[in-house]
Amino acid sequence: xxxxKQLFTRGMLDISPHMLSVIPFGIICGAIGVxxxxxxxxxxxMSFIIFGGASQIVFLQLLSGGASSLVAVASVGIINSRxxxxxxxxxxxxxxxxxxxxxxxxxxxxxxxxxxxNKFFKKNRSEEFLHYxxxxxxxxxxxxWQIATLSGIVLGSFVPQELGLKFAIPLTxxxxxxxxxxxxxxxxxxxxxxxxxxxxxxxxxKSYIIISPIIALFVAALLLRLKx
Amino acid sequence: MTLTAIIFAGILTYFTRMTMIALISxxxxxxxxxxxxxxxxxxxxxxxxxxxxxxxxxGTFIEMNDPKIFGALVAVIVGYFxxxxxxxxxAGLVSYWFLIxxxxx
Lengths: 228, 105
Prior knowledge:
The complex is a heterodimer. Chain A is mainly α. Chain A has 2 domains: 4-166, no CATH class; 183-228. Helices cover 74% and strands 0% of the residues of chain A. Chain A contains 12 helices and no strands. The longest helix of chain A is centred in the middle third of the chain and has 25 residues, at 131-155. Chain A is globular. The two termini of chain A are 36 Å apart. By secondary structure, chain B is mainly alpha-helical. Chain B has 6 helices and no strands. In chain B, helix 5 (67-82) runs antiparallel to helix 6. Chain B is extended, with a radius of gyration of 20 Å. The interface between A and B is large, with 89 and 68 residues.
């Protein structure tokens, strides 16, 4: 049985390699916000209030492009609706927590944190304080994201665009799913999702980000039925 | 004005994170749904990976000889065999930079 502190540390360690892509991306997000002409305080406020990577860039780009606030808010909601799926997976491991603790822990659920904690949860179901792993991944992400976006706001256009550091984001997610390429059913689900995301890329409000997972999960359900 | 919009976007985002964790109990999800949920990482992350590789900043498809495709392939191979996140990201970035700064320059 691991202690709370050990689990928290394990969460920190499990997510820290992803900071190699998260920190440059955060710097870019901060820099883009200022470049688009928004007040630095507003750009930073987003990292604290929304705390949602790409959705922050989309929000500012839409507003600066003349879209209404309603469209910008709706787009953020749709882009981040993928968290509903993460929550559904995590709920099984967090059900023993009090309602207040569930409300607090929810704030730090992010893509990479979900991915790494979910991997850990599957292997260590019997641990009593499992949620400390999720707090560890989430808090590490939170601190790094705040520092990175702040640095981007201060450094501004100092970050060379030619480096194409945004490319680090797909790479970090490749690192997360690559071991599942060993399983044919997962490969089929991944390809379904990937191709759907390209097909529906121009769907309104960036909804490809939730349409393609739903299609892929339907395919997963079909595969499960075929397996039986 | 913008701050109000940010606050609404933040509340909405928080609800996407909180809803399933706080309001769903174990009994509400049947075994079949749980089995499908096993596929969530494989069903969600390619929607971030594919557009990040195949679609450029202007929202159009890249050419088939784009350095990003090569970088992603290197990352997949290195990631598959090394099982190491830092190695995967670095291999992808370095091979991408090698193409754009050395080969295509």
